[in-house]
Design brief:
heterodimer; A: about 350 residues; alpha+beta; six-stranded mixed beta sheet; B: about 260 residues; mainly alpha
Chain lengths: ~350, ~260
């Protein structure tokens, strides 16, 4: 595992007695944009803080660019971190915020000046250099936080939920911006998020975490199309997941005999769009129905519990409360070999 | 009478009750007569001049200034780290620390003064000046902690981490990112502490010895002996000084944001 540009080896992180991350192995390539994806409490933010040096690992090793930095203090690691709240210095102007690290390093005056101007231009803030951070919009504040880290040419740039504080329009803008900056500067970026669409859209590679451990690593396409566990499948929109046992499809609510169509173990998953409504061998009662433009979404109460379905809006509508036939087509089933839960 | 008029009357009476004595003092200080009286007899500014000629007032003014300035500085030296600790860390017995720090305000000054006299000055022979200094530091400490803690709570804790990741040491991060942002709070705490210390009576009463008196205590002693309007003139001058300081603090620092 030590072939990566950044590698975490058997990293164990804990707050007091509670272990947040247990023997994590992770390898990050130079110049890639990696997402740590997982629900809150999965250890992704803790991992990020440890890589930055803000949290001392209980055991394990962190290597960056060949050097063991496990015991290197955060101010000498040259790892940048863009905080979720941006953490801008309120008493300093936009320019001085961006120049902060260079001034500490005692770079020459003209060097600080020109490099700060250049980085502010990169993030499109060159005309706002004299303002106070409080006079910037949320998107501008984030770009300043990005510039403040980037100007130091960090070996690694970490971003904590980079899009979560922005509205929908700014998210799209910032997403493009981050990708552009990453291509322009070639910096290795790791960002933490709980939003799968953010991870899918932005990352070169996604690491899905759960309970302090990695459950799956892959490209966005792999994670989206070939989740290996029910947890990951659920995360990327397979809302109907059932385990398989002796030819039966089993859920918490009951089971259905599907001999010949299901494996002996593991689980099968269907996206709502793959469920057929209006025909099939299974029956359910419509408990919710909502029109969403191009399609209609149903929730069906069935012997397998609640089924989420999505059908083209052109098909005839089924009233709430009515019985309806539906099918889980075997051809559309996505197998989850790793677990049955 | 409708409700607006009732409430206006209540406000007027409250203010008259609070500020009224101040006008009585000023009027008495402007008296031309030889004894402290209201209404004043005649009009004269001579007591405002006479008060500067009272020798003991000069000494006690000096002591009060010394206690107010250095007592408050000492309280800030202890109070800023304490405020930082209680706002930034979940320290063991944090609530107890907050309570202990507030104790000198809650416990009546008479008791604090008596306790210091009984357990510090008398048994170990501590000099009165040192005891006064310790007492004033302790009395100002609660204000220092509270006011500085309030301005720390308005400041995001992660800016320090941001500074560390840009190359600062922990202390450097505090100095470069925290201190500049709580400067207003520290100045406000200083002014509040200064005024509190300067006007302090009950504790100082117990800790005054021969030749060592704070100004308020000296004024008390003075009117016991000499019942002339110079004390009123001094009171008026001190009141204007306090008003001036608080007004300047509010005008330039927004003192009311911190208290």
């Amino acid at each position: 595992m030590s072939d990566g540009y950044v590698s975490l080896e058997a990293l164990t992180l804990a707050y007091g007695r509670s272990v947040a991350v247990d023997r994590l192995d992770l390898s990050i390539r130079r110049g890639e944009l990696l997402a740590l994806l997982g629900p809150s409490g999965c250890g992704k933010t803790t991992t990020m803080r440890a890589v930055a040096g803000l949290l001392e690992p209980r055991s394990g090793r962190i290597r960056i660019d060949g050097a063991d930095v496990t015991r290197t203090p955060p101010n000498r690691r040259n790892v940048g971190l863009v905080f979720q709240s941006y953490a801008l210095f309120p008493h300093l102007s936009v320019f001085e915020n961006a120049a902060f690290g260079l001034r500490l390093r005692r770079d020459s005056k003209s060097g600080v000046e020109s490099r700060t101007r250049a980085i502010l231009a990169t993030v499109g803030l060159e005309n706002l250099a004299g303002r106070n951070p409080s006079e910037l919009s949320g998107g501008q504040q984030q770009r300043l936080a990005l510039a403040r880290s980037l100007v130091m040419e960090p070996k690694l740039l970490l971003l904590d939920e980079p899009l979560s504080n922005l509205d929908a329009r700014l998210r799209l803008e910032m997403r493009t911006e981050l990708q552009r900056v990453q291509i322009e500067t070639g910096v290795t970026m790791v960002f933490v998020t709980h939003d799968q669409s953010e991870a899918l859209a932005l990352a070169d590679r996604i690491v899905v975490m759960r309970d302090g451990a990695v459950v799956q690593t892959g490209t966005p396409e792999e994670i989206y199309n070939r989740p290996r566990t029910a947890f990951v499948a659920d995360f990327v929109g397979f809302d109907n997941i059932f385990s398989c046992r002796e030819g039966m499809l089993v859920s918490d609510s009951g089971s259905v005999d599907r001999t010949g169509n299901v494996p002996d173990s593991g689980a099968l998953a269907w996206r709502p769009a793959d469920v057929v409504v209006g025909s099939g061998s299974l029956r359910g009662r419509v408990v919710a129905s909502s029109f969403a433009g191009q399609h209609r979404e149903y929730v069906l109460e069935s012997p397998l519990g609640r089924i989420k379905a999505q059908v083209p809006a052109g098909e005839p509508a089924h009233p709430i409360g009515g019985e309806v036939a539906f099918a889980l087509p075997p051809g559309k089933a996505h197998p989850l070999p790793d677990d049955g839960g | 009478m409708n409700r607006t008029w009732t409430s206006r009357l209540v406000i007027f009476l409250t203010l008259a009750f609070l500020i009224g004595p101040f006008f009585v003092i000023i009027a008495a200080a402007l008296s031309g007569g030889n004894s402290l009286a209201f209404p004043p007899q005649g009009f004269s500014l001579r007591w405002f001049i006479a008060v500067f000629e009272v020798k003991s007032f000069r000494a006690s003014f000096g002591l009060s200034m010394f206690l107010a300035v250095f007592g408050t500085l000492a309280a800030l030296l202890l109070g800023v780290p304490a405020a930082y600790a209680v706002t930034r860390y979940r320290i063991p017995f944090g609530e107890a620390v907050r309570m202990a720090v507030a104790a000198p305000i809650i416990v009546p000054g008479i008791i604090v003064g008596l306790a210091l006299l009984r357990y510090l000055v008398v048994p170990i022979g501590m000099t009165v000046t040192v005891a006064l200094f310790l007492a004033h530091t302790a009395l100002v400490l609660p204000y220092a902690v509270r006011v500085v803690a309030a301005s720390l709570e308005n400041l995001r804790p992660d800016i320090e981490e941001a500074a560390v990741l840009l190359g600062c040491t922990r202390f450097g991060a505090f100095r470069r990112t925290v201190l500049p942002n709580i400067r207003g709070g520290i100045l406000a705490a200083f002014i509040l502490g200064f005024v509190t210390s300067f006007n302090q009576v009950p504790v100082s009463l117990f800790l005054s010895g021969p030749g060592v008196r704070t100004l308020p205590i000296d004024m008390l002693a003075y009117i016991e002996m000499t019942y002339d309007p110079s004390v009123a003139a001094l009171s008026a001058l001190l009141a204007f000084l306090s008003i001036g300081i608080v007004f300047a603090a509010e005008r330039f620092l927004g003192l009311s944001r911190y208290v």
